[in-house]
Amino acid sequence: MLGTNGNPVIFAGNSHPQLVRDICKYLDQDIGQIEVFKFSNDNTFVRILENVRQKDVFILQSTVEPVNDHIMEMLIMIDAAKRASAGRITAVVPFYSYARTDKKDQPRVPITGRLVADLLETAGADRLLMIDLHAGQVQGFFQVPVDELTAMPRLVDYFIDLKLDDPVVVATDIGITKKARDFANWINAPLAIVEKRRLGNEDRVETLNVIGTVDGHPAILFDDEIGTGGTMLAAAEAVVEAGATDIYAVATHGVLPGNASTRLAEQPYIKEIVITDTVPLSEDKVNSKIKVISIAPLLGEAIRRIHEGRSVGELFTLQSG
Fold first, then answer.
1. Radius of gyration (C-alpha) of the chain in whole angstroms
2. Can you give the pTM of this predicted structure?
3. Any idea what DSSP says for residue 202?
4. What pLDDT is stored for residue 105 in this prediction?
5. How far apart are the first and last CA of the chain?
6. Options 196, 271, 289, 291, the catalytic residue
7. Helix (H) or strand (E) holding 80
8. Which of 130, 175, 193, 304 is least enclosed by beta carbons within 10 angstroms?
9. CATH number belonging to domain 152-293
């Protein structure tokens, strides 16, 4: 029987140790003791350094670069906890990289989002805790319970505090429109949409036009994830041509590979880039335009509620209009 007395045991993989430290600080407890490293032959080794028999174990790993290494590391950590007779194992994945590969949109391609889900379950994960999946249907890839949190309330609070003068929320493409509409409703702003076309499998987009009115308004470019920055840059150019004034970019996940952070910072139209810390931001990607909002309190509270058998949904008091 799962022992719920005492604290949950929270282990950190190597992808985002600072986030785990912040979560444990919020919960006022120590981080679980574990060794996770690679041998000289590139094999990953994991050893749990404390008793987890019948304990409620949470393993946090954001699937960031190097993505496949971190996925494998997480699988091995889950297996180690399972073989150590953990009572329940929850994989906490703030950023689920392969959520974009959620369907066969070309001939002879995989559905990697489903493959990773199968691997996590096979390794021994009893449930998943994630934040703002790129494709909501990824939850259906799992046979175990999935709690998808959203950073939306944290981002909404930030922009309410900014007190922008009559802003317009701009969905960077049609696929993100529903979430962008919710965001717009919560900050009491109108919605516009940038229609775009992605060029094959390349990280480049061809912007078509802006649907809605942005002329004379500050624009908040909204997406769930900033990758290379191509979508945000194309959207910024489109709304500037349509007459927008100050431009803010907002997304839950700031992946920002390579020089993406620099490219966005050098765009004179963009005043600020607001992201959360689901993905760690290395020192070379930090600049004066990037504002990082911590989701540690959100994850910490969710972990506490799961551990205590309480509702996770009650975390979100904001309702869409």
1. 20
2. 0.92
3. S
4. 84
5. 42
6. 196
7. helix 67-83
8. 175
9. 3.40.50.2020
